[in-house]
Amino acid sequence: MRLKTIRTPLAAAAALLATAFTSAVAGAPAFAEEPEPVSGDIVTAPGLELRGRFDEERYDVWANILGLKPHGGEETLVVYCIDIHTPLDTESPYTEGEWEESGVANLEEVRWVLFSGFPNVAAEDLIEAAGAEVNPDWSDEEAGEVAYAGTQAAVWHYTDGWDLLEDDPVKGGNDGKDDAVLAVYQHLTEETGRVPDPSEFAVDLEGEETATYEDGRFGPYTVRSNAGPVELSADGGTLETEDGGAVESLKDGEQFWIVLDEGADQVTVNGTAGYDLPVGRVFVATSEEALSGDAANPMTSGDSQKLILAQPREGEVPAEWKFALDAPEASAPPKPQLPTTGSSLSIAFAAGVALLVGGMTVIVFAKRRKVSEH
């Protein structure tokens, strides 16, 4: 997956004359950065044999538990099959590929299944959330087999159009395993949501066009993030909440104000939204030569089974906003009975006034404006 930076176009030239004392250039939202590709070796463990069908055609399949041990790492990550008809290649290493090139459908729904299924939800918790009972005689491994099988069945439902049989869904599924697997499958397919692609995670800022200067500070500015809370810091000033508290992290829709350091006329605000996402990275079999970079074709999957990563990978969305601010000067203090009003900092876009940094920087200029005596 390749991420693209999209730059916000400037407003029409006619709007440049809307005001004489403020101007701004705004960048597009900051988007998630592409994680480094992962490669590793496949490991398997016994699972449950599931009974299902394609439309009216019967098709039974083993839901063996699959894992990927990344090269250079010790932990084995849980993966699922997204290619029910193709045998698993246990002899070749696997590396990350592109979903668009895999030919597999319904990525967003599959991500939701992974987010809501095993192991992102503990085995017993998932079984109970599905309305089934956990047999007290099951070992932790057996509970894991049940949760994995139900999650795998739900994945196949979206990637391959396969349906788990409602009657007798697990071969030899005694001790309640058949009921539990079916319950997990139904739980994960009845009201499926959508988990965005990491490239859709963005951090943005609102308020450049409406912010005012009042009581010694500029604002408010509103954080917009669909990637989770945004950690904020400032160089050249401090960030405050509405009641004057210190700002460290804000959620989507929450606001902050800027207080310039003494003698400063510019402040840089940095934001970072971290996310843990079962990103659904696709893995396909490749060759050692391809991984070494010596192959003309960097990836060859052949007829090997495609896999999808179930466990979270950490990522972050970094953003930066630069503000060149100049507080209004008062030639005399206002009378107590008169209200203090803010002055707009950014009403129009102006071309050629400031540089757009990386498509992710907002630069706001507020020219000095005198407050008349009262």
UniProtKB/TrEMBL annotation:
<keyword id="KW-0732">Signal</keyword>
<keyword id="KW-0134">Cell wall</keyword>
<feature type="domain" description="Gram-positive cocci surface proteins LPxTG">
    <location>
        <begin position="338"/>
        <end position="374"/>
    </location>
</feature>
<keyword id="KW-0572">Peptidoglycan-anchor</keyword>
<dbReference type="Pfam" id="PF00746">
    <property type="entry name" value="Gram_pos_anchor"/>
</dbReference>
<feature type="transmembrane region" description="Helical">
    <location>
        <begin position="345"/>
        <end position="366"/>
    </location>
</feature>
<protein>
    <submittedName>
        <fullName>Cys-Gln thioester bond-forming surface protein</fullName>
    </submittedName>
</protein>
<dbReference type="InterPro" id="IPR019931">
    <property type="entry name" value="LPXTG_anchor"/>
</dbReference>
<keyword id="KW-1133">Transmembrane helix</keyword>
<dbReference type="InterPro" id="IPR013552">
    <property type="entry name" value="Thioester_dom"/>
</dbReference>
<dbReference type="Pfam" id="PF08341">
    <property type="entry name" value="TED"/>
</dbReference>
<feature type="signal peptide">
    <location>
        <begin position="1"/>
        <end position="26"/>
    </location>
</feature>
<keyword id="KW-0472">Membrane</keyword>
<keyword id="KW-0812">Transmembrane</keyword>
<keyword id="KW-0964">Secreted</keyword>
<dbReference type="InterPro" id="IPR023849">
    <property type="entry name" value="TQXA_dom"/>
</dbReference>
